[in-house]
Automatic annotation (TrEMBL):
All copies of domain Metallo-beta-lactamase, residue ranges: 514-725
Domain of life: Bacteria
Protein name in the entry: DNA internalization-related competence protein ComEC/Rec2
Stored Gene3D superfamilies: Ribonuclease Z/Hydroxyacylglutathione hydrolase-like (3.60.15.10)
Transmembrane segments: 236-256, 268-299, 306-326, 332-350, 362-381, 387-410, 417-441, 453-471, 478-494
Membrane topology, from the record: Multi-pass membrane protein
Cellular localisation: Cell membrane
Keyword Iron: no
Major localization class: membrane
GO cellular component: plasma membrane
Entry-linked Pfam families: Competence, DUF4131, Lactamase_B
Statement: the UniProt record of this protein carries the keyword DNA-binding: no
NCBIfam families: ComEC_N-term, ComEC_Rec2
Length: 784
């Protein structure tokens, strides 16, 4: 099998996927692969049998993982004995941990709302590694995604063999005992102590980078900086890479040899140390891959059958998925192996084509970006075109300045009197680097094709393979560069084609929890509008209670939704009124999505939130327009009428909501914001003949809106209610649901159904929900 190890990775992959995805597609791929091995790679009959056996071994391993990835709990349990073998994290007034139930051995996500600052200090002082605690609490299942492009927390935890979230009644401080910590727990403890040391000795900017590069801890990096690094495609520089592991292992090896230790003993020492280093460095996929590869190469270094790096990559891949089949779903795992595979197999061509200096750096960055393309489209729905230029700038900065400085200055942080010097020297360089990243992130060089079908993803994956082959065989540099650019050119053609295609329109009520956000996309690209952005009503919190990254529906829900739809520009952002649950997510959207115009109600006095939006729009350069009754605009075949408020409105904000009427596929739609009953009566008086087929129920289904008089007059066929699941206000109120039932309106609710979408073209349209529609029976039960 010498020289053929890389060919064993596909059957191992297919075998693992067999129980995860079903037999039809996997078998359809496996047997043609056997034919290819036999015909083109000259595999013998025995070797083919070995490949089949390998396939079966990985299929059985995957089957075992699937069968054991089940819960032993029913959800009504209250008392638990938990082992905190992964430590705990405290963010603001939230305590979070992954613990193992002592009786069943099942992992549970643990959460607790800290009661006081004193209690938080006690939790921070407590060492949870290996701690055994008797606790009480209530269990719930993790939330699934409720919007297109949304993060599926339930699926994420399931892939980590976790099925329940346990909310504790009291802090896990009293009924606890300390067990003898395992070696892994001790290593995790060392890691946590190292991170704590860094945060104590370094300024915040440099502490975040040092923690990331030494311990693989990225949570200390500020939200703005991390967002910028993601936008320009250089987050890999903040992770501990395979190159770092290789360089560190090589330096330790050479140092040992220079000190007189034999090569054999140094190899054995490194084999013992590398797994420990993987745990201390955070055990990310890239670190584990590098440690596995280094271990394999060390094991075979003194054998006659030396394994190539490609062979080591293949063996590490098989070992990884054999231990944890669900790692296949991890984007970090996918990117680490695909990019490493591409760089290894292009290394020969890179040498033959005589690239040097910046050209070598640019081509290497292009190859990495090309390899990552299918994964970026699959998980993130976008591609940073500025990534190649950003990598050319930042790789030398990190490789020759920041990374060496981090490692060289870190020992000084333990020397009294020199810790401040180490942090001060590094801090200036880190701040300059972060500012440069923030500047580059403002340059609009991204492709946003949106969520792709499986067929299109397969097509782009095939185009990447073809691109590499064409590049390797190219006779001239121009042809070589053109070959590498092929998939990007195809993406541009696809985006251009979608702009001129006869696309359907849609109206989607996005599930932003207890708030409103409605996306309207007109057919044939005639306009994209967003009515409200959602927002978290965050009651005043003390400093110790504030989360580092509190939930922002604009950033965490609406933007991923827009990216999944391939939306790069909003023609209008319509903010119906100044309540936080309608405009709280606006700032994040304004900073990340191009907006032509923002519509605000023509109030005499603006809310504090509206004033902040106006100021931000002025800085960004977004036009602000105040609208009132009588304003109209037309786009394509659609006309939008503003029915409320009156100009210079001075009353209650809910009563001054922007109310919009339009027609889609011949049906009349009325968007009412938080309009109360008295304002509804005014609409009936002013527009008695208005045809309302679809009503966006006012104020999240509150009993103060959607009055019987209003519903009896307009008789909507469909009512859309945007409300948060189990919200503190009890929306939608029982009375509202009953009134809508009496009016015979079909009710769609975001708290029950997730995002609600109406797709239309011409005179026809269809409603669909992101979660399965459960019907009126469950709606009545929920409203009781």
């Amino acid at each position: 099998m010498k020289g053929k190890l890389i060919l064993l990775a596909p059957p191992a992959l297919l075998g693992t996927m067999l129980p995860l995805h079903g037999p039809h597609t996997i078998i359809a791929l496996f047997f043609p692969y056997l034919v290819l091995l036999s015909k083109y790679k000259k595999f013998s009959f025995k070797q083919i049998l070995f490949v089949c056996a390998l396939f079966l071994v990985f299929a059985l391993t995957g089957k075992h993982s699937v069968e054991n990835n089940k819960t032993s709990f029913f959800g009504n349990e209250r008392n638990f004995s938990l082992v905190f073998n992964e430590g705990a994290a405290i963010d603001g007034d939230r305590f979070k941990a992954i613990a193992k139930d002592l009786r069943t051995g099942e992992k549970i996500a643990v959460t607790y709302k800290v009661a006081s600052e004193h209690e938080k200090e006690n939790l921070q002082k407590a060492n949870f590694f290996g701690r055994l605690c008797g606790v009480n609490g209530s269990m719930k299942q993790p939330a699934s995604a409720k919007n297109p492009g949304g993060f599926d927390y339930n699926l994420y935890l399931k892939e980590h063999q976790i099925h329940w979230i346990l909310t504790l009644d009291t802090a896990p401080l009293g009924n606890c005992s300390v067990r003898n910590a395992s070696m892994v727990e001790k290593l995790r403890m060392i890691r946590q102590e190292g991170i704590s040391h860094i945060t104590a000795q370094y300024p915040s900017e440099s502490a975040s980078l040092v923690s990331a590069l030494i311990f693989g801890e990225q949570t200390l990096i500020s939200e703005d900086v991390m967002a910028a690094y993601k936008k320009i495609g250089i987050t890999h520089l903040l992770a501990i890479s395979g190159m770092q592991v290789t360089v560190l292992a090589g330096l330790v090896f050479l140092l040992g040899v220079r000190l007189g230790v034999t090569r054999e003993r140094m190899s054995i020492l490194l084999l013992a140390v590398l797994p420990a280093y993987a745990v201390i460095a955070g055990a990310s996929p890239s670190v584990i891959r590098s440690v596995l590869m280094a271990g394999i190469l060390l094991l075979t270094a003194f054998r006659s059958s030396f394994i190539s790096p490609a062979g080591a990559l293949s063996l590490s891949f098989m070992a990884f998925i054999l231990i944890d089949p669900y790692s296949l779903y991890d984007p970090g795992f996918q990117l680490s192996y695909l990019v490493t595979f591409s760089l290894l197999f292009s290394s020969g061509a890179l040498r033959n084509k005589n690239y040097v200096g910046l050209e070598m750096l640019a081509v290497t960055a292009l190859i990495s970006q090309l390899a990552a393309l299918p994964i970026l489209l699959l998980h993130f729905f976008e591609l940073p075109l500025i990534s190649i230029a950003a990598n050319i700038i930042f790789i030398p900065i990190y490789s020759f300045i920041l990374m060496p400085a981090v490692y060289l200055l870190y020992p000084f942080s333990f020397v009294k009197g020199l810790a401040g010097f180490a942090g001060g020297v590094l801090n200036g360089a880190v701040m300059l680097s972060d500012r440069l990243a923030l500047f580059l992130a403002k340059i609009p060089l991204q492709m946003n094709p949106g969520k792709q079908t499986v067929a299109i993803l397969v097509f782009y994956t095939a185009s990447v393979f073809y691109s590499f082959i064409a590049w390797e065989r190219a006779k001239t540099q121009k042809v070589a560069y053109l070959a590498l650019m092929l998939p990007f050119l195809l993406l541009m053609i696809q985006e251009a084609g979608e702009l001129v295609s006869n696309r359907a329109g849609e109206v989607t009520v996005i599930d932003v929890g207890q708030g409103d956000s409605i996306f309207i996309s007109l057919p044939n690209g005639n306009g994209n509008y967003l009515i409200d952005t959602g927002g978290s009503v965050d009651f005043a919190k003390k400093e110790w209670q504030r989360l580092r990254k509190p939930y922002d529906p604009g950033r965490d829900t609406v933007i991923p939704f827009l990216k999944a739809k391939g939306i790069v520009k909003l023609n209008k952002l319509i903010l119906t009124h100044g309540d936080e649950d309608h405009i709280g997510g606006a700032a994040a959207i304004m900073e990340n999505i191009k907006i032509d115009e923002i519509l605000l109600p023509a109030y005499k006095e603006k809310s504090e939130g509206e004033e902040e939006i106006i100021n931000l729009a002025d800085r960004i350069g977004i036009n602000i327009k105040e609208v009132a009754r009588g304003d109209v605009w037309k786009a394509g075949n659609s006309t939008f009428y503003v029915l409320s408020p009156i100009r210079d409105y001075t009353g209650d904000r809910n009563g001054g909501s922007i109310v919009i009427y339009s027609e889609f596929s011949g049906n009349g739609w009325l968007f009412t914001g938080d309009l109360p009953e008295d304002a509804e009566k005014e609409l009936v008086r002013l527009y008695p003949a208005m045809k309302v087929d679809v009503l966006k129920a006012g104020h999240h289904g509150s009993k103060t809106s959607s009055s019987a008089y209003f519903l009896k007059h307009y008789k909507p066929a469909v009512a859309l209610i945007s409300a948060g699941e189990n919200n503190r206000f009890g929306h939608p109120h029982k009375e509202t649901v009953e009134r809508l039932d009496e009016a015979r309106a079909k009710i769609y609710r975001t708290d029950l159904h997730g995002a609600i979408t109406y797709s239309f073209k011409g005179k026809s349209g269809t409603f669909s929900t992101f979660l399965p529609y459960t019907g009126a029976l469950n709606e009545k039960k929920k409203a009781k």
